[in-house]
Specification:
Blueprint lengths: L11 E4 L6 H12 L4 E4 L11 H18 L2 E6 L6 H4 L3 H22 L3 E6 L22 H14 L5 E6 L2 E2 L6 H11 L14 E2 H15 L1
Parallel strand pairs: 1-2, 1-3, 3-4, 4-5, 6-7
Helix pairs in contact: 1-7, 2-4, 4-5
The chain binds NADP nicotinamide-adenine-dinucleotide phosphate (NAP).
Length: about 220
């Protein structure tokens, strides 16, 4: 049983730290399409900084109160992250604060409030040299600062005692101006031929598809 008590039958109330990011925006759009079942609060880092324990405690208290009043079950879906992979090499402490300390704080507060936590992670926790698709239980072996901090975030969540799920994704796209799919679509319109690096292998993931899957998961776990 969670903070709303056993009477929570009117869907879910979801707190999405990192709500202003690519995935956070996709989650908000998907929730808006299912407003009867999903109430979602998607704060930016200015509104909720996951590295500040006091702010997280307050946000979880607000979530619990709002969920109780609406008769919904509370869930935290963590989309907050330091995602600048290259910059993290020179700023690993900052990346660690957001990607490892932040989830540790969120998980500790979720655990004490008995609110389930879904934490989003990345294929960068693996070494990348398996030569085959990775399985969830494959050994971690991050090769980058970003990957190390995200692996530490997974450990912190799984060791917290919270009811928690780790969802790893890869190479998110929304088709917007800055991402690979959006850039390719633009270049295809502007040029006769397009050159692309051929030494990278990845699994592009639609942020909209992931948002749908995460909210599908959030319903049953709440
Ligand atoms: N993008 C990808 O290709 C990719 C691939 C694999 C996994 N992932 C994972 O998917 C998740 C979502 O990524 P995304 O692509 O949506 O990232 P994004 O667009 O870079 O968004 C990151 C979000 O985290 C927020 N944030 C940063 N520092 C924070 C802090 N201290 N406290 C609270 N929020 C903070 C940012 O807020 P502000 O903008 O307001 O500062 C932003 O809303 C992350 O866990 C990421 O590791 C992403």
């Amino acid at each position: 049983m969670n903070d709303t008590g056993e009477g929570a039958t009117k869907g879910i109330a979801v707190l999405v730290p990192g709500g202003s990011g690519q995935l956070g925006r996709a989650l908000a759009a998907e929730a808006a399409r299912h407003a009867d079942d999903v109430q979602l609060w998607a704060p930016s880092s200015a509104e909720l900084d996951v590295t500040r324990p006091g702010a997280v405690v307050e946000a979880l208290a607000d979530l619990a109160t709002g969920a109780r009043e609406a008769g919904r079950a509370p869930v935290v879906l963590n989309a907050a992250a330091y995602t600048a992979v290259d910059a993290a090499e020179d700023d690993e402490n900052r990346a660690f604060a957001v990607n490892a300390d932040g989830p540790r704080v969120l998980a500790a507060v979720c655990s004490s409030r008995r609110v389930p936590l879904i934490h989003v992670s990345t294929d960068y926790v693996f070494s990348g040299d398996a030569g085959r698709p990775y399985e969830p239980d494959d050994p971690l072996g991050p090769r980058t600062a970003y990957g190390r901090t995200k692996a530490a975030g997974e450990d912190a969540v799984l060791g917290s005692g919270a009811r928690a799920w780790i969802v790893r994704t890869a190479w998110l796209y929304s088709g917007g101006a800055g991402d690979f799919v959006g850039t390719m679509a633009r270049l295809e319109r502007e040029r006769d031929t397009v050159s692309v690096v051929e030494d990278e292998v990845g699994s592009p993931t639609s942020a909209d598809d992931l948002a749908r899957a995460l909210l599908d998961l959030a319903g049953p776990v709440a």
